[in-house]
Amino acid sequence: MTGSHDSVLVFLSIFIAVFASYTALSLASRARASGGRMRLAWLATASLAMGGGIWSMHFVAMLAFSMPDMAMAYDPGLTLLSLGLALSFTGAGFALMNWRGSSLGTVAGAGLLIGFGVVTMHYVGMAAMSMDATLSYEPVWLGISVFIAVGAATAAVWLAALDHRTSHRIAAAAVMGSAIAGMHYAGMRAAIFTRASSHHTADGLASLSQTYLAIAISGLTALILLLALGAARVERSFAAYAKREARIALRLDVADVLRQRETKEALNQIASLLGKHFAVSRVGYGQHCSAENSLDFEVCWTDGSVPPLLGRFPATVFGSVFAQALAGAGTIVAQEPAGMNLREAVPPLQKGGTTEIRSVVAVPFDRPDGSRTIIYLSDTAPRTWHQEEIRFLEEIAERIRLVIERALVEEQLRELNATLEARVEARTVALRQAEEARRAADALYRAYFESSPDPLFVIGVAPDGGFVVEEINPAHEQGVGFKLEEVRGKRIDSLLPAADAERILDTYCRAVQTREVYHFRDTFETSGEPQHWDTTLVPLCNDKGEVTRLFGSSRNVTRQVVAEEALRQSQKMEAIGQLTGGVAHDFNNLLTPIIGALDRLTRKGVGDERDQRLIKGAAQAAERSKILVQRLLSFARRQPLQPVPVNLGRLVTEMAGLISSTSGPQIRVLMDAPDDLPPAVADPNQLEMALLNLCVNARDAMPDGGTLRVSVSAQTVAFETADQLQPGSYLCVSVADSGVGMDEATRRRAVEPFFTTKGVGQGTGLGLSMAHGLAAQLGGVLRIHSEQGRGTTIEIWLPQSAAAEELAPTEGHGAVLKKREAVALLVDDEDLARASTADMLQDLGFEVHEAVSAEDALSRLNSGLQPRFLVTDHLMPGMSGTELARTVRVTHPDLRILIISGYAQGTGLDLNFPRLIKPFSRMELAAKLSEVDGQSASAKEDQDGPVEASIPPDALPLASAG
């Protein structure tokens, strides 16, 4: 059977539960704020309100329940028993609580007690029902009702232990009351009513007498709860009044103590007053020492239950609470502070006592000497600190800070009075010394201003925003040309041309607006030449922060700018040179098999006359390509050179006829080349080519005729020049013409490869770049002096040789050539180049053994191969040709070695080994092998007498031609 509920009584039961919860929370707050018997009284009242309210809600809800056609009555004894159970269990649960700060275990225990009391009260009340039916329960809803009862009771205890504002308390009461009502109606949902076999039919609705009884019980409960709330309100008012009076009295006591006692005595007395007022176990002061990160406790009061905390201890002993206060986090309040264990800091009491801290409040403040002091209150029991208590404690801390400051100031005042006369005298001396120092500094600044090699100036800022010259130093007068008497007091815009003045005024305005030091570079035209100046402006402000003057320092950096431009040009040319050198080296490797193949085809007479003409044309093109690559390598400073001491005067004189014939009849050629000059370090062949190119350029610059002068002179350089020419003795070869000349832009780009002002097909643009690379490779420089319309002078500076000029060897010197079979070991990683060189060697009569790497060559030599010649490329993967030659020189000292390379200054190339430059023809290879064999034979002849060379007979005419 199922019953029904009266909705009015249901709402009334829920209201009773909520009202009882609110009353219990309010009374519990008074228990937290009270002590001794008053706390017990308030706990009993709260238990009565909670238990009675729960029972009243339950009873009214029972009266709201009815069964159809069944009369219901209640057993008075069981009904009163249910009331007693509710009061008993609620009182026991509240008594178990520690209202100043309970743990989760205590809250859970009290919740279980009250919850089971509610469950017992409910089901005893259900048993008090008398009806013509049997009562049983559904297990699921029975369990739900028990869970709700325990949960609601635990929540009630936890909420009662917290400190709530009125709004929070109302919300908590609504939640808790609804949960209590939910438990009851869940229990009613679990009830199963089974009608007896015979029963009396009656009105199943709640009778009028039941309704009146429910209203009467509800009214009585509400009246009791209202009286309890009123009593709590009155008691709270009296307690607040007593607390205010106690705080006023404490303030007066603190003021009296601070006024009448010495500082340390006053601090001890105040600690005692605070401890008794707040009823804590320990009050003290700790001064922080930042250098040692320690706390020094000189004052401590205890209530006797804990030992005093005195002495100096590491700050880490006190965990994070004091650390946060020392870090400037403000007042710190903590319950059971983590990491704080005073057993390491204080000894336990002889009898009883504890060092455990369950709650602490720490108020930091800064002292006048920069240190930080902490006032702390700690207790061995958990405690909830109210905001008004914390504010009051902060107020007392501020008073203590003031008295500490007052004591410190008084001590300082006493010391000041004791030393005032001496301090005045010392101050007078210091002022006099400062004045003398200021005068000396002014004189020093004036001396610096007058003597500085940099132009210095002071510009005043006029009220209208204009700029007026106030001071300039002698260096400024000399560098710029203005005299101080001529410009002092004059505005900038009246001294400079309009364009310059506008530009300068813009920079001055920027410095004034930003109030920051401003660096800038400007260019002026003086005497037709651009002058570059670096200037620094320093704004000088008055007391109002307004810029009133600009102090400026300038420096003529024209030479630096020119040098920087030259360096950039040099770096640019170096980068182009590296790229060009790499490309040229690759072309050499490609040209080697081409020239070798064409040479072989020419010698063999392959094809008809037309084929021979084409082969000859291809060979000429290959030779022109070879010359072009040599020019590129010369520009890149990687041209293979044979530097020897050269008499430049004799070389230039011998070239006079060639230069005259090349220049033509319209050009007058003058030679100034003394024969008695010291020799220079040069490669005569490359130098002749460079001079001839320069003379051709000079001829092209004089289309209507003119004068070409070639001269040689000895020069001495004392200091490193802007174009990085080192100090020393040099020979200078000069080629001067009276032609059209070059403008500045053309002059700066003249040595760039492929740059030319000639028409298409009239020049490669490599003549000057080759001469520039040649001079740099030999340790000299190339200089260009030119003026448009007045001609050009190009100078090649070469270092003077320390050795005398080498004369050409006489005929008949060297090894005697004889027909003899010879073995050559050829090493090259390039297949085409290796195949071409192998063909040349075979044509010369050699038995050729090929190796693709230096490691392969060493393996063949170690396997018993005994060649007469080792011909090896230099740049190869792994071991280079030079490294191979050095190794073989030790293991096979009689082996003739020839290194072939694309250029002479590759990485690791040893110039002491004979070398042949790619690309080369069969004739050049034969000549070089003959030279190598002759050198080896000469060396052997010095030791053992005459020997015979090993070059095959068909190479003799080629070697002679070479």
Describe the 3D structure.
With 962 residues, the chain is an alpha+beta fold. The chain folds into five domains: 230 residues, no CATH class; 144 residues, Beta-Lactamase (2-Layer Sandwich); 105 residues, 2-Layer Sandwich (Beta-Lactamase), CATH 3.30.450.20; 159 residues, 2-Layer Sandwich (Heat Shock Protein 90), CATH 3.30.565; 140 residues, Response regulator (Rossmann fold, 3-Layer(aba) Sandwich). The chain is built from 25 helices and 29 strands. The protein has a six-stranded antiparallel sheet with strand order 9-8-7-12-11-10, sandwiched between helices. A five-stranded antiparallel sheet has the order 14-13-17-16-15, sandwiched between helices. The chain is elongated. One of its GO terms (cellular component) is membrane.
What is shown here, in short?
Helices cover 52% and strands 19% of the residues. Helix 2 runs parallel beside helix 4 (104-127).
Give the number of helices: 25
Radius of gyration: 57 Å
Count the E strands.
29
Helical content class:
40-55%
- Biggest sheet record: 6 strands, antiparallel
Unreliable parts = 201-209, 347-353, 807-820, 945-962
Number of discrete domains:
5
| Portion in beta strands | 15-25%
Give the CA-CA distance, first to last residue: 134 Å
Mean pLDDT: 75
Gross morphology: elongated
Which structural category do the helix and sheet elements fall into? alpha+beta
- How do the strands of the widest beta sheet line up side by side? 9-8-7-12-11-10
InterPro entries: CheY-like_superfamily, GAF, GAF-like_dom_sf, HATPase_C_sf, HATPase_dom, His_kinase_dom, HisK_dim/P_dom, HisK_dim/P_sf
Domain PAS: 441-515
Domain MHYT: 5-194
Keywords: ATP-binding, Kinase, Membrane, Nucleotide-binding, Phosphoprotein, Transferase, Transmembrane, Transmembrane helix, Two-component regulatory system
